[in-house]
Amino acid sequence: MTESTRESRAAARRERCTETLGTEHDPMPLGAGSAADRFRAVVALSLAAWAFSGAPLPSYNRATMPGRMLRTWDR
Fold first, then answer.
1. HEC sequence for 7-65
2. pTM above the 0.85 mark?
């Protein structure tokens, strides 16, 4: 990443407003709601974090997803 790219991303982050779940008077406590509610909260927070970072969302499918499988019997 070039220095100018880094600086422009930092400037863009300073310009953004923050996103919250719930409101000041009605915050969403951790662990509240159903599993579906928590999943939606994770999706919303993940998308907000990617947007805040200024990095593009990854565009790969499950077959080409980076990572590795570790099996305890392979050790």
1. HHHHHHHHHCCCCCCECCCCECCCCCCCHHHHHHHHHHHHHHHHHHHCCCCCCCCHHHC
2. no
